[in-house]
Amino acid sequence: QAEKMSAEIVKANYYQYSTEHGIKDEYYEIFRNLPYNEIIDPDQFRNILLMSPSIWTGIYKKSFLNENDIYFLESPGASFQDTGFIIKCLICASRILLLKEAYLHYRVDNVHSSVKSESKVYCVCDEFYEVERFLNEKPELLKKYQQDLLAVQCERYCWNFYHISMDARFGFLQRMNCDFKRAQQSELLEERYFSGYNWKFLQMVLDDPEKTYQYFCAEPIVSVILQQSGCSYKEC
């Protein structure tokens, strides 16, 4: 298909494979709101930027990568490297082909996955710093996609927030506040680019990271009521 359609990138859907509670191998459609089997330009379908990075569901034309100086950010453990790579690809490409079929079976129950490593809390931030460096060398793309990418950055930061340990969350909220303050001061943040939840979350973080942490991460109050008969109890 890549050769037939002269595509720069071909991406497909995939299967989510899990053995945690018996073997599950379920079809996962990440491009359901985008056209299949035809060449598309991300400039006309910007919601593709918000799709799962999933670089392993695609193939990429080598000459396209070389011509646009697209490569992975080198970091220990390869954590979040798909994030920066796919953004660079999508904003530079003009010929992308999406296939409804799924080919790859992606394991989702790997307890050793790098995303679970506490030492990599800020790797997602590094990826967006790299994207910023990349765009600063391509001012025409920066102007075109800057606000869209702020929404993507917020999406990825929100995902990261819920997948790191409780101990790391407050520090990450402080970093998020710092990273988005610059955009806020430059009046680049517009609600229409964000999902409703992400916009509200971002506004909370920008207003007060500590209150945001307390709202989402404070220990719940547990009361224990001992019944008169026996030693059973009820937690409320």
Helix-strand sequence: HEEEEHHEHHHHHEE
- Rg from alpha-carbon coordinates: 21 Å
Distance between the termini: 57 Å
Average of per-residue pLDDT values? 89
Overall body shape: globular
* Structural classification: alpha+beta
Main β-sheet description: 5 strands, mixed
Total strand count, please?
Answer: 7
Question: Summary?
Answer:
The chain has 236 residues and is an alpha+beta fold. 42% of the residues lie in helices and 16% in strands.
What does this structure look like?
The protein is of the alpha+beta class. The chain is built from eight helices and seven strands. The strands form two sheets. Strands 1, 2, 3, 4 and 5 form a five-stranded mixed beta sheet that branches. A hairpin with a 6-residue loop joins strand 6 and strand 7. The longest helix has 23 residues, at 139-161. It is globular, with a radius of gyration of 21 Å. The N and C termini lie far apart (57 Å).
